[in-house]
Batch of 2 targets.
Target 1
Amino acid sequence: MSDSNLQSALSNPQNLGEMADADAVGTVGSPDCGDMVRMWLKYKDKDGKKVIDKASFQSFGCQTAIAVASLATELIRGKTKEEALLMSAEELSAPLGPLPPMKIHCGQMVEGALKAALEAEQGTSSAHMSAPSHIGPTLADSLNAAGKTAGKIKIVLQTS
Ligand code: FES
């Protein structure tokens, strides 16, 4: 793993924070370490195709998860849902170089949050594209709220 790329991703994380007008939200928790990542997506039409306009994330995770999530939100901009679904944890974390074995699940957690957000949006009608209003201020609150409410939030517990 490249320390300089990790440091630059951490010192200036991109797209950190909730997105109020998101079209979809995905949250994943890792049973390996108890960390969580949530990702928000907003789409736009470009040349007749629906592409990711922007993405943001929130992480209660380690530094690697934050760095990969930051990179991922940049890498997926302009991609279609299908293209983004094909992106692996290795691709999302590629600028950091190969992750050490102890950190592989960190990238996988980000990939999981991205896929959960991509899949959460599928099948929802355009009349209900705004983010659910029951999202709490923390991921833990959100998980509790989402557990009680059927909505666009998809929560996946990864089995690595
Ligand atoms: Fe768990 Fe990195 S140690 S996400």
Target 2
Amino acid sequence: MGINPFDVAKKQIDIVAEEMGLDANLTKYLKRIERSLIVSIPIVMDDGDLEIFEGYRIHHSTVRGPGKGGIRYSPEVTLDEVKALATWMTWKCSLLNLPLGGAKGGVCVDPRQLSKKELERLTRRYTSEIINFIGPDIDIPAPDVNTNAQIMSWMMDVYSMQKGRSVPGVVTGKPVEIGGSVGREPATGMGLYYVIEAMCEKLNFDLKSQTIVIQGFGNVGGTIAEFLYKEGCKTIAVSDISGALYSPEGLDIEKLLEWTKKGNYLKDYKDKNYSLITNEEILTTKCDILIPAALENQITQKNANNIRCKIILEGANGPVTTEADNILFSKGIYVIPDILANGGGVCVSYFEYVQDIRAYFWELDRINKELKKILLKAFEEVYALSKERKIKLRTAAYIIAVSRIAKAIELRGIFP
Ligand code: GLU
């Protein structure tokens, strides 16, 4: 049995509850999932066979506003994984002080095995199954692992067709032509960049002379790799699901992105100066900044002792387990938690939602300025609290996020 991410999420609540001296009833309440929807998605495949897929949409908390969170397509998706991811979205939106709650969705499917038409049918049927669960003032989905702007377009179309009018604010991460926001696609990577830059400044590290390792080369990993490359930083290893490339001299990220954007795997890239290492080896490669930007539970008590870096910047959601977090802390490794580090995506999703509702669109410059302002404000608060109390950055981030939720619950009271 692998690690259950929802157990990790609940354990994190216990840790922060103890640190804050949170009331036991509130702690119990925070572990509660508001709503879980499980749907069965029947799809007629291109060859005429019927396949049934399982999908989920979870609302962890809408106490501070409508649910917000991505939808992932992956064969590893489980109900408990989506519950954990929805819970993390609650903390993320709260930490950034966005007027949104936490939600998440997923379909247990390997999208690489589907044709484009099958993918479209799956998305349309899934949207139709969850239609009463979503909406601009209920819950606003967005892209996550293996989903993208095209998938959001189909979702927006199904919802709009059912409502009899165009409703762009039902999902974010759409193409700009149909109400998407400029700057949304690179937003998570952009945010990671702002945060690591701020962290290096605090620690008096020169970002350009740090060696970097990135696990994951999709929208999040690929974008942060590109920003760092353009700034002249040296990334010595990157990975995708096929394996990892390593070069102590630094990788040519632009060429690698060109290669993977054509649908190729990193393992098939040929360069005599690069060696092929495994997805396990990449995590323990000696470097200054390690960016896990793939999936949850990558750094566990099994490999935490072998991690050799100064800072971990969590691009993915939940890549470090609670046991590993303690080991890393005792080794003096700074872990910049997911709910802060990768918050750029949901932040610009929020801007997209606001623009859709007001039907007034912003320039890229305004998006990036406001994104930076929100992320750096959260970063400063988290950093200051962690220094003041001598606690992990994660615990500090959770204290801030959970306090806001707890206050909202207290003010609203428990119905009836
Ligand atoms: N899936 C992204 C996340 O985990 C973005 C969610 C959103 O934009 O709503 O933060």
